[in-house]
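Purpose: get a first structural picture of the assembly so the mutagenesis plan has something to point at.
Setup: two entries, given in the order below. No constraints added.
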Amino acid sequence: MHGDQRAGHGVVIDVLQDLLAANDQVAVHNREHFDEHGVLAINLMSSPGAGKTALLEATIVALRDRYRIAVIEGDLETDNDAVRIRAHGVPAIQITTGTACHLDAHLVHRALHDLPLAGLDLLFIENVGNLVCPASFDLGQHRNVTLLSVTEGDDKPAKYPVIFRASDLVVLSKADLLDVLDDFDPARAAAALRALGRDTPMIRTAARRAATIGPWLEWLEQELAVWRPVVRPGRPGISAAVGVR
Amino acid sequence: MVERITIEMGPLCGIEPGLLASAFAVARAGGCAAEAALLIESTPVTIRCVSCGAQSNTKPNRLVCAVCGGFRTQIVAGDELRLRRVELRMRESRLAPAVNE
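Result (structure tokens, whole complex):
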């Protein structure tokens, strides 16, 4: 604090502190944990029902032999999603948020106590299905990925600029339904995304057909490859360790 | 006693000023800020173009450069959520020693 001034009988204190500072400090702490253990943390966000868990299931099946994966699941109620993930032989921690519509850094930090980070390559944090609040809370993740299912409106990036602007990748999910949905135009979605002033890549997936999540897997492997050597220069990169590339 | 709290916020911070104001009325109850007023200063969305360097004010969902149309821009202002200022009213007996000029 600084700039104390007398104003009549009162005192004016200029504070200039970010109101989310407490969250952001814990997020930095979480990120340090991830970096220390060489874990790439990905925050997965979308509307409810866009297919986050289905995408994760297909991803785990495709990558579990090459990478050690864990998932933190955020939901208001039930551990249904964590049960789905564990069925694929991957550790999953369920955070039930009650009436809260997003995860914050403290909730993730608490979950990390139950999740041994040592030995992990990839941590997915499946946020609460919501395109509004999750965008405002840094969890300590390295990348933000937002799903936009083609059963939603193609103007979603224009309606929810904060979350789409914060995304490192936008996944058009359920893209196999484009054939039967004449009101979702991927070009319009791309234009709305582009209008947010970042050249965020947009890819298509159809998680129920494992063969069509290829672009998503490529993106993940690319991120693992570029990210890993930077934070853990003393250890061989993932490409050397598992023979990718 | 807290007399007034000033918050600086932009449309891209993800918080609605009106909802924050109504939540504040509940949150302030019972403490030293029970009678505090909340002043919200809105900042406009300002972007800087990475390509041509121009700075422009714009809408939250229109973040491309207004001058050259470039889509690689940085947000200069409009995404902050900041406690700007706190104004206190000191009790008479504590006024002189407590204030640090």
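The interface with chain A takes residues 3, 7, 12-15, 47, 60-65, 71-73, 75, 79-90, 92, 95, 99-101 of chain B (CB under 8 Å).
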